[in-house]
Amino acid sequence: MITTEQIKELRDQTGVSVMQCKKALEEAGGDREKALVILRKLSSGAAAKKADRTFGAGVIQAYIHANGSVGAMVELNCETDFVSGNEEFKTLARDIAMHITATNPKFVRREDVTEADQKAARAVFEEEAKDKPEAMREKIVEGKLKTYLAEMVLLEQPFIKNPEITIQGLIDAAIQKFGEKTAVGRFNRFKILER
Description:
Layout: H1 4-14, H2 18-27, H3 32-49, E1 57-64, E2 70-78, H4 81-84, H5 87-103, H6 115-128, H7 134-152, E3 158-159, E4 162-166, H8 167-178, E5 183-191
Antiparallel strand pairs: 1-2, 2-5, 3-4
Helix pairs in contact: 1-2, 2-3, 3-8, 6-7
């Protein structure tokens, strides 16, 4: 039997509707962790359904670290002013700005990585793997390149507040929650240069 308290806890944690939380808990047999996985899968599906919609609104949020020497600004896009004016949406944008401040990604999505960037990284990794057996070299280089890109691409990074979910997963959950297409438009990270 799924209790109201279980539903409330899951709703508080995810922000997803009460009915979706209840269905996920029922499908998971009351197991909260399994219900979270189910909701994440639903979020991905919801994001895919809304992919062809257009952006008409958004918000820019900033985060400055306590020491004042590093910070970031992020543009988070959505479809309507109704969602962009929502405090939870603004909090999401601020959380992403905080994440960018902490992790220093270089690209929003993998498609943003230029051929020149990939070639430069590949050259470094080929140099590192030159002493490895030739049969293993290409596999090592590909593995290092994949790891490097995952670290440099914002949407593929594990969210600093909850490493079990990526930034893309966080955005997918927002799409499910707000019912609108949502995406990071662009970002900038600033750091005081030491001289």
